[in-house]
Amino acid sequence: MTAFTIQDVARRSGLTEPTLRYYEDVGLIGPVDRDESSGHRRYHERDLDELQALACLRAVGMSIEDMRTYQSNRTRGPAAAAEQRDLLLRHADRVEAEIAAQHARLAYLREKAALWDAREKGDAEAEAEATRRSLDAARRLEVAR
């Protein structure tokens, strides 16, 4: 059975060594096997599979508690399918809301830039229109917070 060092696993998973140790400490993975002579962690393919899933969940902003639930549901298999789906859809909704908020921020910045562009050009009509649009964008920004 191939064993990987913590450095190997960090490179393969994209998780830092401190994160790998933390995930073991909080029970998301492991306990990880240890080399008998050195005491260093030795990871196996099954560990890599789990860590890659956790790296993806971390990348989408899932909390440690929800990652723990996800891992528990994985081991339960089909019996936890509905719970697993609901957990993932809740996070998808959160990400979708974050995207909408980012779009509102982007629209506000673009409208304010257009306003200042009109001012630079001395175009009063374009400035008035850009002012109206930037106020609309500011209202959407307040809703997105």
UniProtKB/TrEMBL annotation:
<dbReference type="Pfam" id="PF13411">
    <property type="entry name" value="MerR_1"/>
</dbReference>
<feature type="domain" description="HTH merR-type">
    <location>
        <begin position="3"/>
        <end position="73"/>
    </location>
</feature>
<dbReference type="InterPro" id="IPR047057">
    <property type="entry name" value="MerR_fam"/>
</dbReference>
<dbReference type="InterPro" id="IPR009061">
    <property type="entry name" value="DNA-bd_dom_put_sf"/>
</dbReference>
<protein>
    <submittedName>
        <fullName>MerR family transcriptional regulator</fullName>
    </submittedName>
</protein>
<keyword id="KW-0238">DNA-binding</keyword>
<dbReference type="InterPro" id="IPR000551">
    <property type="entry name" value="MerR-type_HTH_dom"/>
</dbReference>
